Amino acid sequence: MSRVQSMARRRRTAGPKGRDDEVRLTAALVTFALTSMILMAVMLLAPVVKVGPSEGELAPDFSAQSYSGGAWVNFRLSDLFNKSWEPGGDGDWIVVQYIDTDCPYCWSEGELMSQLYSQWGDEVTFVTVVVELGIQGHESNREEIEAFRDKTPYDGCKTNSDCVDRPGDPHPWVYVDDLNEKTTGDWEIPGTPFTALLQPDGIVAWNPLQHENDGEGIETAISRLVGGA
């Protein structure tokens, strides 16, 4: 066989392989394009959840230092969310309470929160966020936060009271330090105490500001939404 014939045969043999590669590449590109179109369609058709503190909105996320009886550690609210939760399914609901440790109403609400935790602690996760309102005499710090939560001796809760005398039991849930009020804007906190109830997926289920006319309180809201009463 001559050299020319050998080269021609090699070229003829290589031809179909090149066409196969082109077919595979074209098929891959078509598959990628179709997949991208399907994903875009799903994204466009999926409902957009608004972030905010109102009922039906996704609760504003935040990250801050927190205290649960030991060392202060970082806490992120959204770590509690179960995004795959569906109504009627299992999952912990979430109570988010805002307080000022010098606020007399927050001081009194300590007993109600203890009662709610005793009744619903197996089904509801409690989170207390501590802020410092711009009111004369309302000056807090982490020592005061710890004493308010734990009901230990500290002169300064409710402005000039000993934290050990706070109504209710020691609170065994997480307390978050937001003394600089970095989260109050997103949550539209009008004052303290402020307590909201979230579904397990982080959607706001109950906001007290939306129930000022019907008079429903947090205890009734939990009973209705979590307990099905």
From TrEMBL:
Query: Which intervals hold domain Thioredoxin?
Result: 53-227
Q: Which UniProt keywords apply?
A: Membrane, Transmembrane, Transmembrane helix
Q: Please give the superkingdom of this protein's source.
A: Archaea
Query: What InterPro entries does the record tag this protein with?
Result: Thioredoxin-like_sf, Thioredoxin_domain
Which positions, given as ranges, span the membrane?
25-46
Q: What is the official name of this protein in its record? A: Thioredoxin domain-containing protein
**Species in which this protein is naturally found:** uncultured marine group II/III euryarchaeote KM3_152_E04
